[in-house]
Write a structure and sequence with these properties.
single chain; Metal Binding Protein, Guanine Nucleotide Exchange Factor, Chain A; 3-stranded antiparallel sheet; 130 residues; mainly beta; 9 strands; globular
Length: 130
């Protein structure tokens, strides 16, 4: 997959301030405030930075954590995982494989069949409704 490389000025011009803060500065939106935290509409969730397909509504579940949660990515190669030791914690950060945008984190407390919970910021994704 070809990587998208843009200057920070280009990203700032294309993204909303909240999208920029989350995707480019690794920010986190407040729990229960994101557009997709409670939605159950069918469709495909794409990266808000570059449009890459990341998750499907079929793998979305209500984790009660305040962020959209999925038990697996749509295509494993579209989501990358990185060790994150910020804020004195050991977590796994999830980023878009094409533009490198910060999506959220993955935790080992999700439902079957994967047992994973991809905890994703609404500001980092866009829902393409079916």
């Amino acid at each position: 997959m070809e990587k998208i490389r843009k200057s920070e000025a280009e990203w700032r011009q294309e993204l909303t301030p909240e999208q920029y803060r989350v995707l480019r500065e690794k920010g986190t939106e407040r729990a229960f405030t994101g557009e997709y935290a409670e939605t159950s509409e069918p469709g495909t969730y794409r990266c808000a930075g570059c449009g890459l397909e990341l998750f499907t509504s079929e793998t979305k579940f209500n984790a009660g954590c305040g962020w959209p949660s999925f038990y697996q990515p749509l295509e494993g190669a579209n989501v990358e995982e990185h060790k994150d030791r910020s804020y004195g914690m050991a977590r796994i950060e999830v980023t878009c494989a094409r533009c490198g945008g910060h999506l959220g984190h993955v935790f080992p407390d999700g439902p079957r069949p994967t047992g994973l919970r991809y905890c994703i910021n609404s500001a980092s994704i866009d829902l393409e409704k079916k």
